[in-house]
Design brief:
The protein has 2 domains: 144 residues, no CATH class; 152 residues, no CATH class. Helices cover 71% and strands 0% of the residues. The radius of gyration is 35 Å and the shape is extended. The termini are far apart.
Length: 412
């Protein structure tokens, strides 16, 4: 019986390296001094390339991290320049100087943003002050509504005492927010500075647009120049057209919501209408319902019945916009599929936050336009998987269908 735990056999002389001066089976003499003990030729270049790549990656990452804010500002400026360049081109075609036309459009954009921010800021400040000054009445009405609706037995005075208790959670929360005033002011100054930077970059991108394109094309062969200019023009037309259509839909939405809010008796109807109009158009799919939370909440504090009317009008108007206004306005620009818009907004928000969500829509519109113009298209085979309902014919000005007759429609 063998012992499996026995140690391994020692190497035989055949396993040892040959002695100096020995001969191999072919008769060649073995010489230890002939062994090349240096590194392979590829080792040193590989090490150099590795460390060079490592240092280059580290420096690039550091620089990109430090310049990320500037790069975001440039990205916003590029999309804004694409949006306003069609308007600047029209004014320049009517004899305006390009710089003056760009400045007028940018001033209009800034003025619109200031009006919107002022209206919404005034509304929020007024409502907060009113809520704090008349908190007892609001609490009493809210508790009464809850008791009448759900059959509860909540004492309004207990809730009021808890709200006004200096050592209570509500007052502690309000006092803790007073320290945020300085931080909010600094953030506002930073946003103003970034906005001015974006406007400056946008101005030069639009005012010196022809010069910039000429400088880029001067380094390209003629065939590639034509392709670059065609792509650039397509991006300008589609991106600008998409944003203009969104802006027009926002104006229509704000106008009709202002009429509805004024009729219902919603507080600050103009500010709330502007809020709903802008948020509903530039946040896809869920923007309308997110924007409707603020007017519904403010109206609910006054009257729950009015809040129901506000929600009902927002839902009805959204359907009217989807089936009446939007198809006619976007027919000459480009309509972005809701799923594409929603996915683009989520992806943009994941990358750059709120700014990314806003830029994702024009970026997706531009990408869709470029993709639709590139590549060949072929006839699709007949299949039940590719059947699409034909578009509903539109009536022409003379009562006809508006569709030109085909050869099969010709009289015999």
């Amino acid at each position: 019986m063998t012992d499996d735990s026995a140690p391994d056999a020692e190497p035989t002389p055949n396993d040892a390296p040959p002695a100096n001066g020995a001969r191999d089976p072919e008769g060649n003499r073995f010489d230890r001094r002939s062994i090349d003990r240096t590194l392979p030729r590829w080792a040193i270049p590989t090490i150099i390339v590795f460390w060079f790549g490592f240092l280059l990656t580290s420096v690039t990452t550091h620089v990109f991290h430090r310049l990320s804010s500037l790069l975001v500002l440039l990205l916003v400026s590029i999309f804004l320049s694409l949006a306003i360049e069609p308007g600047a081109n029209r004014l320049a075609g009517r004899g305006w100087k390009r710089g003056r036309a760009t400045l007028v459009i940018l001033l209009g954009v800034v003025l619109s943003m200031l009006v919107f921010a002022g209206a919404v800021g005034t509304l929020v400040g007024t409502q907060i002050a009113e809520l704090l000054s008349e908190s007892d009445a609001y609490i009493t009405d809210t508790v009464k509504f809850i008791n009448d609706t759900f059959g509860s037995q909540i004492d309004p005075q207990d809730v009021i005492d808890e709200f006004n208790d200096p050592d209570g959670r509500v007052q502690e929360f309000i006092q803790s927010q007073s320290d945020e005033a300085v931080r909010l002011s600094l953030t506002a100054l930073e946003v103003i500075f970034q906005g001015l930077s974006v406007m400056l970059f946008t101005y030069y991108l639009v005012a010196d647009g022809p010069r910039l394109r000429r400088s880029i094309c001067s380094r390209l062969p003629p065939r590639r120049q034509a392709r670059v200019l065609a792509t650039w023009e397509l991006a300008i037309n589609k991106t600008g057209g998409y944003l203009y259509s969104r802006a027009l839909l926002a104006l229509l939405s704000a106008f009709f919501h202002w009429i509805a809010f004024q009729s219902i008796g919603t507080p600050a109807p103009i500010a709330l209408a502007l809020w709903v109009g802008l948020v509903s158009q530039f946040l896809p799919v869920v923007g309308t319902y997110l924007a409707g939370i603020l007017p519904a909440l403010l109206t609910f504090l006054d009257s729950p019945l009015k809040a129901v009317l506000v929600i009902g009008f927002i839902v009805i108007y959204q359907q009217v916009e989807n089936y009446v206004f939007a198809p006619r306005i976007t027919a000459r620009t480009m309509e972005l599929h809701p799923a594409v818009a929603f996915g683009a907004a989520l992806g943009g928000a994941s990358l750059l936050g709120f700014v990314g969500a806003m830029l994702a829509l024009p970026a997706a519109a531009m990408a869709q336009a470029l993709a639709s113009e590139w590549g060949k298209r072929y006839e699709v085979v007949d299949s039940h998987l590719t059947m699409v309902a034909p578009p509903k014919p539109r009536r022409g000005a003379n009562g006809d269908s508006g569709i030109p007759p085909t050869a099969s429609d010709a009289p015999d």
